[in-house]
């Protein structure tokens, strides 16, 4: 049987009151007891909480505090944590959206921005869901009657509804000196539109979960395992290369928004640089080791430098799982770049490598047609070439502060071997 939203509201307020009362009871029941004065103070506090969490009293307070929160899809504080401008709730959907923007989301998640953390209880109130809709949705549609069973009069019900709706509306939109602002020229005589682009928390949230799903979901893990074993799978293996990560909110992620706290402040950024000018394709015909090629050095220089700097930084520290996971993420970024570069050679005319100077194992990797020339485990040899190359590059990038031996070589080799198999080679 479906629970009415008014019943959920009453239960929510009573639960908050009981939490406060439990905290007071713990103070009364301390091991060494409390004095009569302290006991009287605590009993008085109990009475105050009964009054404060009376349903009508609390809802009146919530209606007054609702203006301190914003239910929105676009949050200004992602631009700067101290920005005080307006947040906006935009739920328009365009099925033919030509760009990947917030209008392309079928069901955008609504975020919550809070000016005062003490008003988070109002945000949770508005998120109460009876199975049909949340209280916020009811109020946005003008269905104020859902509050009537709790009110003593129609006027009180209207007062609550109007107050709580302040969290959903922006009556006087405003920007802020710390928000982004763009002067867009519209003609002569120094005429401009002043545009203030806002960060789409809803879009960032959806992209975050798409990337997390591709990396950590049981479905993707099973698909990668099937590919590794050369077995069929109903799911495509999805990898996002060249991702960047930003962290918003510092130590207090909730200062930005509720969804930001849920993501631990992380936002994934996809590469959107202008296309690189590509000269005429030239396969690696000269040189026995492709890892020593100029294109390899150019495409991996910055990533290798990042890994070297990290390893130098943690060198004096005892190894732990966080250090090892960070190391492997940086190494995976190098491998992603290499595998992306390898695709251009793997899709070249079959058999192109037969007249090249490459090691035969690398011919098998970069030229699928060349596999008949080599019957051994070429993946292991290519992985070893990668490990030797990466050790050498890291030592040079660290100016010999790193001296990496067989243990590091075996680890890089294992990562490369897995990556090649996941890539279907």
Topology:
Layout: H1 5-28, H2 36-52, H3 55-65, E1 69-72, E2 74-75, E3 111-114, H4 120-126, H5 135-140, H6 154-164, E4 182-187, E5 191-195, E6 199-200, H7 201-216, H8 218-228, E7 244-247, H9 258-262, E8 266-269, H10 294-314, H11 321-346, H12 360-366, H13 378-397, H14 406-422
Antiparallel strand pairs: 1-3, 2-6, 4-5, 7-8
Helix pairs in contact: 1-2, 3-6, 7-8, 10-11, 10-13, 11-14, 12-13, 13-14
Characterise this structure.
The chain is mostly helical. It is 47% helix and 7% strand. The protein has a two-stranded antiparallel sheet with strand order 1-3. Strands 2-6 form a two-stranded antiparallel ribbon.
If helices are DSSP runs of H or I spanning 4 or more residues, what is the number of helices? 14
- The termini sit apart by 55 Å
What order do the helices and strands follow? HHHEEEHHHEEEHHEHEHHHHH
Work out the strand percent: 5-15%
- CA radius of gyration is 30 Å
Please give the number of β-strands: 8
What general form does the structure show?
elongated
Major sheet: arrangement of strands = 1-3
* Share of helical residues: 40-55%
Query: What does the largest sheet look like?
Result: 2 strands, antiparallel
Mean pLDDT: 87
Classification by helices and strands: mainly alpha
Given as residue ranges, the uncertain stretches (5+ residues, pLDDT < 50) are none
